[in-house]
């Protein structure tokens, strides 16, 4: 190999400028403390994975319904992908949009980008123009990785999105190759575009050369550099951009794995989107941080449980969108091998807890986590009451929690409900390029205001966190967060809608769905299909669409002139309950 560091395109910092003020840095004293006590790693995240792969080369790293890969195979392949991406002219710090589902090539793309010093931007395959456009331009994305096939043409979408984009240069696919785009196989496996670029640098695309190239790139990465951009659920407008750093992101996952007692013999099943922060931190990185195997399933519960059974999965994360699926007979077979069932996203009833827990060694525990940082888990050896009624204790020694009176910085005592605020080694100090919002989202001491209502409760002398609701106006649809205010602004862009209020309505399967209360501009009352077509025309992701509309002559007001959403929530809850009772009575008489 003849190239030197100065010849590498990764020697710069790409589209993300370190000094433009859009990235909120941790205070220097905190950085020094976290590095000194080991809360932060000094090595880049890609090297942390490589070191684990070197320790466990022949153990399975990922199992899916269609493929599997050992640590050695995954490490070598992602080195080649990284080399190919570098060969395309991408630089350290360049953001890359991800729109991928749960498949082996998604894992390959993730580690390949990270090893190349690129920044994966964790959007969803379900996102559309409304969500992608602002984010992509804000962060200066240079590439867009999408999945070939499926019911929606993501390749065509990405190509269209790139027209007129100031920084976008490449569309890359996983799955079947497309003539109009590069593919992950092409960039990492020697296809002509990447190979010719590498040859111009005077290198080959062999495994050893790819490893050397990755190592040269890693010499330019520091613990305070961004490793990935995750997205918030969106409290106002489109989702906010969450910077995660090389120094903290791998440890976030390692602490989670250690809190559950995972080892290289653990097999971790994951059903929800792997590109979510929960997917990365609780699935991919967490499994790999200890040499465990990731059993990468899909959201289809029956096939996921069947894969868990075949793969003898020992641990699984179940989001509340899958709570009802635990009643399926396929779960009976899968749970025979399970050691731990982690429940997350909603209160856990006694019947659900009993279904997940057992007296023969299987434990149900709860997780609370956020893309912005803080994770809490109920320990496996905690009393059953704590495991059923609380979300546990923080996973890191340096995590700090305060329960404050909402809107203030005044702490409340244990057992009293307030706003959950947190600070720590993996909790962000600010959203990317969001100075105005950051001014209200953090306390004067840098604690992140989560918007969740919570309390600290003491059980057998241990303080556990209990989530009691939320301040934010967000609908939790099976784990996907839908910002009510965002959808309201889009609804009133229709000429037939004068005002709108979107609230959560209960749903047995998903927990919550969006219901839109609308006031017409005249006597025309649109159908639900009309409303959904309107949002589709604006490029809004389908999971955000209201699934019920209610027409009113005016929206109810509070005594201070605000829309009375509490009243609307009570109204729709009553209607849904009454309708379900009527259906049940009809079934009994039919």
UniProtKB/TrEMBL annotation:
Identify the residues that the record assigns to the AMP-binding enzyme C-terminal domain, covering every copy. Answer: 486-562
**Gene Ontology BP term (one):** fatty acid metabolic process
Q: Which Gene Ontology molecular function entries are recorded, alphabetically?
A: medium-chain fatty acid-CoA ligase activity
**Region of interest: Disordered:** 1-21
Q: In the UniProt record, does the keyword Ligase occur?
A: yes
Q: Which UniProt keywords are present, listed alphabetically?
A: Ligase
Q: Which InterPro entries does the protein's record reference?
A: AMP-bd_C (IPR025110), AMP-bd_C_sf (IPR045851), AMP-binding_CS (IPR020845), AMP-dep_synth/lig_dom (IPR000873), ANL_N_sf (IPR042099)
Q: Where is the AMP-dependent synthetase/ligase domain?
A: 51-432
Question: What is stated as this protein's family in its record?
Answer: Belongs to the ATP-dependent AMP-binding enzyme family.
The protein here is known as Putative 2,3-dihydroxybenzoate-AMP ligase
């Amino acid at each position: 190999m003849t190239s030197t560091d100065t010849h590498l395109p990764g020697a710069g910092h790409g589209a993300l400028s370190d000094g433009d003020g859009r990235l909120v840095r941790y205070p220097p004293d905190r950085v020094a403390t976290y590095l000194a006590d080991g809360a932060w790693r000094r090595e880049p995240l890609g090297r942390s994975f490589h070191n684990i792969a070197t320790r466990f080369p022949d153990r399975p790293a990922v199992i899916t319904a269609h493929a599997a890969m050992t640590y050695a195979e995954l490490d070598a392949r992602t080195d080649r992908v990284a080399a190919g991406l570098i060969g395309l002219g991408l630089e350290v710090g360049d953001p890359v949009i991800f729109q991928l589902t749960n498949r082996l090539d998604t894992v390959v793309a993730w580690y390949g980008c990270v090893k190349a010093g690129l920044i994966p931007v964790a959007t969803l395959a379900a996102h559309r123009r409304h969500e992608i456009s602002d984010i992509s331009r804000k962060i200066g994305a240079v590439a867009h990785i999408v999945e070939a096939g499926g019911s929606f043409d993501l390749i065509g979408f990405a190509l269209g999105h790139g027209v007129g984009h100031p920084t976008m240069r490449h569309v890359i696919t996983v799955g079947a190759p497309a003539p109009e785009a590069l593919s992950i196989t092409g960039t990492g496996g020697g296809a002509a575009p990447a190979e010719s670029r590498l040859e111009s640098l005077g290198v080959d695309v062999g495994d050893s050369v790819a490893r050397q190239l990755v190592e040269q790139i890693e010499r330019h990465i520091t613990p305070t550099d961004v490793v990935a951009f995750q997205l918030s659920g969106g409290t106002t407008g489109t989702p906010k951009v969450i910077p995660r750093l090389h120094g903290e992101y791998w440890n976030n996952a390692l602490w989670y794995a250690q809190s559950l007692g995972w080892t290289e013999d653990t097999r971790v099943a994951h059903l929800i989107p792997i590109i979510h922060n929960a997917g990365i931190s609780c699935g991919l990185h967490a499994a790999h941080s200890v040499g465990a195997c990731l059993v990468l399933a899909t959201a289809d519960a029956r096939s996921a449980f069947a894969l868990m059974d075949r793969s003898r999965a020992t641990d699984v994360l179940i989001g509340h969108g899958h709570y009802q699926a635990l009643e399926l007979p396929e779960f009976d077979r899968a749970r025979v091998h399970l050691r731990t069932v982690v429940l997350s996203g909603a209160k856990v009833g006694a019947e659900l807890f009993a279904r997940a827990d057992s007296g023969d060694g299987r434990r149900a525990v709860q997780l609370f986590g956020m893309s912005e940082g803080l994770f809490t888990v109920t320990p496996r050896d905690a009393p059953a009451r704590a495991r059923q009624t609380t979300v546990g204790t923080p996973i890191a020694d340096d995590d700090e929690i305060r329960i404050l009176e909402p809107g203030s910085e005044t702490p409340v005592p244990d057992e009293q409900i307030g706003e959950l605020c947190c600070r720590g080694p993996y909790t962000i100090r600010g959203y990317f390029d969001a100075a105005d919002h950051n001014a209200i989202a953090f306390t004067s001491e840098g604690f992140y205001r989560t918007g969740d209502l919570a309390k600290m409760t003491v059980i057998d002398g241990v303080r556990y966190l209990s989530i009691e609701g939320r301040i934010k106006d967000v609908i939790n649809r099976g784990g996907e967060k839908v910002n009510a205010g965002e959808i309201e602004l889009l609804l009133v862009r229709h000429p037939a809608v004068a005002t709108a209020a979107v609230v959560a309505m209960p749903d047995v399967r998903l927990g919550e769905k969006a219901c839109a209360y609308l006031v017409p501009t005249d006597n025309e009352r649109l159908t639900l299909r009309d409303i959904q077509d309107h949002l589709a025309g604006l490029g809004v992701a389908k999971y955000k669409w209201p699934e019920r509309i209610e027409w009113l002559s005016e929206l109810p007001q509070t005594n201070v002139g605000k829309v009375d959403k509490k009243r609307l929530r009570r109204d729709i809850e009553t209607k849904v309950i009454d309708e379900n009772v009527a259906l049940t009575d009809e079934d009994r008489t039919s």
